[in-house]
UniProtKB/TrEMBL annotation:
It comes from Lederbergia galactosidilytica. It catalyses: Hydrolysis of (1->2)-alpha-D-(4-O-methyl)glucuronosyl links in the main chain of hardwood xylans. Belongs to the glycosyl hydrolase 67 family. This is Xylan alpha-1,2-glucuronidase. The active site is at E292 (proton donor), D371 (proton acceptor), E399 (proton acceptor). Residues 460-682 form the Glycosyl hydrolase family 67 C-terminal domain.
Length: 685
């Protein structure tokens, strides 16, 4: 298998003989207690990894054979006392958690992989294999691990014609010519990749549910959906579908989709029964309603709680949930209208409904109030909903962050979001505590993200974009992991252990977000992209359109006034002291200045520079930094296989071209608008 296809599951042969011997002594005989499809996958993964890295075929015992050197199973099935363990230990970890421990049994070193459930065993196996990949010692191991977040999900934005909305790595792996694919290999390999980093849920079709996709919840497609759910189930991943709110009309033959209509309620109940007949552990629905022209409850004078609850009621008897998106805003705005503010919309729509949703509804909120820009503040809805389940939506797909042509390692961005203190319940109310359910004791919570994969040979187009998928899974399992740790871990399991190589790539990854920010939209203003496809610069591309995404640059200044006194009042949606911090020009952080304030070009930033000089400097710097990335990568020639080396080299050249275009367009535009020259007299066209 090509390294690029295997991503972080290459399991290269371990050549160090001593290390290999050390590992082998643990891995000759494996005892598995219990039977389930997930345990079956766990064993398959283990055997595959050991064969590949250590060249051994362990003897497998289908019971708790004492002679085995690896013993795996769930805590309820194993005789814990034989290993000196107390079942109390497992009270501390959640359903998906596990223990990995090295013990001495009759003078023999033995490795225990004990899950709270069979999923825990699968995760323990992945953890063990990762330790081998990382060349860690297996002596005296003791890990007690639980995922911090409950739902750890990916949203595929795949259409049934095999196109992928905002997809930058080929076609869908799920669909083919308006059918669900029967080629399951790739889906199984995807499931393996995802489970190895702890993902436990997936929605398999685009949130925009078009005509044919609306029928995914009918007999015509459900048998094939069920086959996909079987594949994911074996890897501990629950399958969800995005649905069309107008389904009762479009496929049900009703004249309305009014959520309070009894026929509509009945229709959804029957539909849920039908789906669960095919997929007994179906996850539920993801819903984009009343958003960007998709149908929703507003058509019937109902609100989002009415809309979500009719679905939730239908799914409830079967244990299904509704994931209802909060990406709801007026997308028919007039640029002259300075009072309507897209950033306010999610909060304005959903905050008043807090407490009105059934307990199997989760509101899915994008990390920022606009739309996955390179820099946005955190959505003020986090923390504002006390009585409603909520989850985070990130975008692993690099829609506004370089489209997997430009390098942009997103883990530092996600970490910044998760660490942000909302002060919802005083200091220490970080976003990570809201999405892990602990702040408000939520029944359901978690994190999801738009996936970045397609049928490209290397899954993600840009080989280094694999780091985003890997980092996303590992980070949401444990948000305490640092960006540095995650970058290094990914590099080791992907490219090996050469220390020069590790340092070079690590630096490239860690610098990349700020580099991308430098040569694109400055100081949090966002949106200066080409309309529709969103790659490359177009400063006024969205400035006079209906989407509510303006920078309001004129000859005097730039930025959006979102203050309480003279602006849209958006800053007031935050809890104190964030509210005051953003509202006041003096305390607003530089990187978000233009998100909250309209200022003259001569306004001095905290950095001491004027806004206009900052724009020039960062854009020149951004291009120089991309040249630096190219230089760093070129030093790795010979240390990386040709295919992956060339893939990244080519993408970096595209990035350089893009960065130069951004630099020149942005600098020229603002030079012309402001009439203020660059202090360093560099070339501005
Ligand atoms: C963005 C994106 C769309 C997507 C939408 C959403 O606007 O460009 O392609 O449909 O977000 O999240 O629903």
């Amino acid at each position: 298998m090509e390294k690029s296809y295997a991503c972080w599951l290459q399991y290269d042969r371990i050549n160090d003989r001593n290390l290999c011997e050390d590992y082998r002594k643990f891995c000759q005989e494996v005892a598995v207690k219990g039977e389930s499809v997930i345990l079956h996958s766990a064993l398959k993964e283990l055997k595959n990894g050991l064969r590949s890295m250590l060249d051994i075929e362990p003897i497998i015992y289908k019971d708790e054979a004492m002679e085995a050197s690896i013993i795996m199973g769930t805590y309820e099935q194993l005789h814990l006392q034989e290993y000196g363990l107390d079942s109390q230990l497992f009270q501390k970890i959640n359903e998906e958690g596990y223990l990995i421990k090295t013990i001495k049994k009759k003078e023999k070193e033995t490795l225990l992989l004990i899950g709270k459930s069979d999923k825990g065993v699968l995760y323990a196996v992945h953890h063990l294999l990762r330790l081998l990949q990382l060349r860690e010692s297996l002596n005296q191991l003791e890990f007690i691990e639980s995922p911090k977040n409950q739902i750890r999900m990916l949203n595929q934005w795949d259409n049934i014609d095999a196109s992928v909305e905002r997809g930058y790595s080929g076609q869908s792996i799920f669909y083919d010519h308006n059918k669900i694919t029967q080629n399951h290999k790739r889906i199984r390999d995807y499931a393996r990749l995802l489970s190895s980093v702890g993902i436990n849920a997936i929605s398999i079709n685009n949130v925009n549910v078009w005509k044919v996709e609306t029928k995914l919840i009918t007999h015509e497609f459900l048998a094939d959906v069920a086959k996909i759910a079987d594949i994911f189930r074996a890897y501990g991943i629950k399958t969800f579908l995005s649905i069309n709110f107008a389904s009762p009309i479009e496929i049900g033959g009703l004249s309305t989709a009014d959520p309070l209509d009894n026929e509509v309620k009945k229709w959804w109940k029957n539909k849920a029964g039908e789906i669960f007949g095919y997929i007994p552990d179906f996850g539920g629905f993801v819903v984009k309603a009343d958003s960007e022209h998709r149908p929703g409850p507003f058509s019937y004078g109902r609100d989002h709680a009415d809309g979500a609850n009719v679905l939730a009621q239908a799914l409830k008897p079967f244990g299904g949930i509704v994931i209802w998106r909060c990406f709801v805003y007026n997308c028919l705005q007039d640029w002259r209208d300075r009072s309507t503010d897209r950033a306010r919309a999610a909060y304005d729509h959903f905050k008043p409904l807090d407490g009105q949703f059934l307990d199997n509804v989760i509101l899915q909120v994008k990390n920022g109030p606009m739309d996955f820009q390179v820099r946005e503040p955190v959505s003020p809805l986090f923390g504002a909903l006390e009585k409603t389940n909520q989850m985070m939506e990130f975008q692993v797909a690099q829609e506004y962050t370089g489209q997997q042509k430009d390098l942009c390692f997103l883990v530092p961005l996600w970490k910044e979001v998760l660490e942000f203190d909302t002060y919802a319940h005083g200091q220490g109310s970080a976003i990570k505590k809201i999405v892990d359910g602990s702040l408000y004791n939520a029944k359901f919570s978690g994190i999801c993200a738009v996936s970045n994969i397609g049928d490209d040979a290397n899954w993600t187009g840009h080989t280094l974009a694999q780091a985003n998928l890997y980092g996303y899974g590992r980070l949401i399992w444990n948000p305490e992991l640092t960006s540095e740790e995650l970058a290094e871990e990914w590099i080791r399991v992907t490219f090996g252990h050469d220390s020069f190589l590790i340092e070079q790539i690590k630096q490239m990854l860690l610098d990349s977000w700020s580099i991308y920010e430098n040569y694109t939209a400055p100081l949090g203003v966002g949106w200066m992209v080409n309309p529709h496809h969103h790659y490359g610069p177009s400063i006024d591309g969205y400035e006079y359109s209906v989407w509510g995404t303006y920078h309001f640059a004129d000859r005097d200044g730039i930025g959006v006034d979102r203050t309480l006194e003279t602006g849209t009042g958006y800053a007031g949606q935050y809890f104190s002291p964030n509210k005051e911090m953003y509202n006041a020009l003096e305390s607003c952080p530089d990187e978000l200045l233009l998100f909250f304030h309209h200022v003259p070009y001569t306004h001095r930033l905290k950095s001491g520079k004027t806004v206009i000089q900052h724009i020039y400097d960062t854009h020149f710097k951004g291009v120089a930094q991309v040249e630096g990335l190219i230089e760093k990568w070129s030093q790795l020639q010979g240390k990386i296989d040709e295919e992956r080396f060339t893939n990244v080299s080519n993408r970096l050249q595209l990035q350089l071209k893009n960065a130069k275009e951004w630099r020149d367009q942005v600098n020229t535009y603002f030079y012309r608008k402001s009439g203020i020259a660059d202090e360093e007299n560099r070339a501005i066209y």
